[in-house]
Design goal:
By secondary structure, the chain is mostly helical. Helices cover 80% and strands 0% of the residues. It has helices at 4-11, 13-21, 23-30, 35-60, 66-93, 98-103, 108-123, 126-147, 155-165, 167-183, 189-214. Helix 2 packs parallel to helix 11, helix 8 packs across helix 9 (155-165) and helix 8 packs antiparallel against helix 10 (167-183). The chain starts with a helix and ends in a 7-residue tail after the last helix. The mean pLDDT is 95.
């Protein structure tokens, strides 16, 4: 039996390729993304991370081992301390005020994605919750590594890329992928299907998140 990570990735392959082709990702890689779009993305990601940290805590609470519990607790704390500080710094350099960062309303994709994560991680098993949060880790890593092959001259974009292509972030992602591979062989048919569906749906929401930023999308009413 192959690695469970490969089974998850294969099921969402068309969505991931669409993400790599997305104009937001392409323009970040070229350093040509507009400050308005980048700022919109940072504001929404800042909001998203708050609920992502909560989702990680929900998954970690179902861990069978203290090591897995510690991993999810550390990653949730990293979202609150490190990632939010990073986003605050990037926002300031993109011309987004601290007031806007803290008061921007969550957009449609942000609300839909975070509600999916929280509901799935609350109701699902440990493995299903892991599958739901895994695309956020893994997609950013893959995007970062691809774009890091040729860093743009735009320092803001280059800094963002370097974070997700870096060794510290890579170690976090690899720990979650290794956990998925460890859990994979033990998953029965129904739980396996739920995990695959949760992973695919989160991957789709990742595409929608990029699209929301590129279109500067908010609520129509």
């Amino acid at each position: 039996m192959g690695r469970f990570r490969d089974e998850l990735r294969a099921g969402a392959a068309p969505v991931w390729e669409a993400i790599h082709r997305h104009p937001f990702v392409q323009e970040v890689g070229a350093g040509s993304i507009s400050p308005e779009r980048f700022g919109h993305f940072i504001c929404q990601d800042y909001l998203y991370l708050q609920d992502f940290a909560r989702a990680l805590q929900l998954v970690g609470a179902k861990a069978a081992s203290q090591d897995d519990l510690e991993t999810f607790a550390e990653h949730a704390a990293n979202c609150v301390r490190v990632e939010r500080a990073l986003h605050a710094g990037l926002a300031a350099r993109a011309g987004v005020s601290g007031e806007r960062l803290g008061t921007a309303p969550p957009g449609p994709a942000t609300v839909a994605y975070t509600r999916h994560l929280l509901a799935t991680c609350r109701a699902g098993s440990f493995a299903v919750g892991l599958a739901a949060v895994l695309p956020c880790y893994w997609i950013y890593r893959e995007v970062g590594l691809r774009l890091a092959r040729r860093l743009p001259g735009n320092p803001l974009c280059a800094e963002w890329i370097a974070v997700y292509a870096g060794d510290h972030y890579g170690a976090m992602v690899e720990s979650q992928l290794a956990l998925a591979d460890r859990l994979g062989p033990s998953l029965g048919g129904p739980e396996r299907a739920q995990a695959l569906e949760a992973f695919l749906l989160s991957s789709r929401y990742e595409w929608m998140f990029w699209e929301q930023a590129y279109r500067l999308e908010g609520w129509p009413l």
